[in-house]
Design goal:
- The chain has about 375 residues and is an alpha/beta fold.
- It contains 14 helices and twelve strands.
- A six-stranded parallel sheet has the order 2-1-3-4-5-6, sandwiched between helices.
- The longest helix is centred in the C-terminal third of the chain and has 16 residues.
- It is globular and about 65 Å long.
Length: about 375
């Protein structure tokens, strides 16, 4: 791994061969100071894909450990206050053509000719009144978006929300769909042994994720076969409220909550009867995309971001009507041919997304603001 010298490294020819100008694009390490999550995953994969573009020099201020994205300059500085402050300062000293902000904080004295901000969703602003626990989560978003030369969003649904709620000019907001990283299902695990015997829910479960209100419907749909299970992947240990609802729904003794590695999650998708994605809102349908890519039939809430991601490759239900999910799940359990059809359609749809394409679209935004 190259050492981070504070200067950009020229990349090998790749997706940016047609560009006439090489741009230095800076990234800071702010997002890696928080617990691992979707935004850190986004930045990691985006930097790695951009590193293949001959027209883009990626300058990364460091701030996370592990192998990191291949070919990107990096150095682990730890998470102490002094090291993290140094990490941020290094982003300021680099003379980038464009600095790409992925967290809602701007390094002080940022030395870049232009800045781009990614806004993944407007859920705290749109749903904060209904779910006070998420209100104000992105407190600096509006100020940073107003200051940025361009705002990148992952879907047309999020773009509409940004234009409405942040009052930005239309010509400053760009859609660059995200992607799911290719994974190799882990062999010989519980999911292989129990293939076709569980339905799957992935990720956080609270607030707008809408899992708890849907548990009674899932319990009713699974009640006809005592061998079937519900697997909750990620999202942390079950809360007391969740345990009580699971027990009341007849799922208490047939639900497993587990934390998974990326390869184990790929196996969980590949061997599930189906994935259930019940969210009331999303900025982009990443879980749906991951499931389709890894061979799981998908039952998804009929919301704009999911529709945009999946097209007609999933079975839809109204996330505010438990009976709608119950009917969809009962149909999926009873119809193996339909599940096979969803697998084929989902794989075809997922093939249209890649981090290479995301990087190419993002690089076009950089070139636009750097003109």
């Amino acid at each position: 791994m190259p050492q981070n010298t504070g200067t950009a490294i020229r990349r090998v020819p790749g997706i940016g061969d047609s560009a006439d100008v090489t741009l230095t694009v800076g990234f800071d390490g702010l997002i890696y100071g928080w617990p691992p999550g979707g935004i850190a995953t986004y930045q990691t994969h985006l930097m790695a894909a951009l590193a293949e573009d001959a027209g883009i020099n990626v300058a990364f201020a460091g701030g996370y450990g592990g192998a990191g994205p291949p070919g990107v300059t990096l150095r682990f500085l730890g998470r102490t206050r002094m090291a993290f402050a140094a990490n941020m300062a290094r982003a300021a000293f680099w003379k980038s053509d464009v600095h790409h902000l992925t967290g809602f904080w701007r390094p002080p004295f940022l030395n870049a000719k232009a800045s781009v901000l990614t806004v993944h969703d407007m859920i705290p602003e749109r749903w904060g009144a209904q779910f006070p626990g998420i209100a104000g989560a992105h407190y600096a978003k509006a100020k940073l978006a107003a200051r940025a030369d361009a705002v990148i969003v992952p879907s047309e649904a999020t773009r509409r929300d940004v234009l409405e709620l942040l009052k930005l000019p239309e010509d400053r907001v760009f859609v660059t769909p995200e992607a799911a990283a290719p994974r190799r299902p882990a062999p010989g695990r519980w999911f292989v042994k129990n293939a076709g015997r569980y339905v799957l829910i992935v990720g956080r479960r609270g607030h707008y994720k809408n899992v708890v209100p849907m548990l009674p419907a899932i319990g009713r749909a699974l009640s006809g076969d005592g061998a079937l299970m519900l697997v909750l992947a990620g999202g942390g240990p079950l809360t007391g409220e969740e345990r009580a609802v699971l027990d009341a729904a007849g799922l208490g003794g047939r639900t497993a909550q587990t934390q998974l590695t990326d390869d184990e999650l790929a196996a969980a998708y590949a061997h599930a009867i189906c994935l259930i994605a019940p969210s009331l809102a999303e900025g982009f349908g990443l879980t749906v995309l991951e499931a389709m890519q890894n061979g799981a039939p998908v039952l998804a809430s009929d919301i704009p971001a999911h529709r945009e991601t999946a097209g007609e490759a999933v079975l839809w239900f109204d996330p505010e009507r438990g009976e709608a999910l119950e009917a969809a799940l009962a149909k999926a359990l009873a119809d193996a041919a339909m599940r096979d059809s969803l697998r084929v359609a989902g794989a075809k749809r997922a093939a249209g997304y890649s981090w290479r394409a995301t990087a190419a679209a993002t690089a076009n935004v950089y070139r636009h603001v750097a003109r």
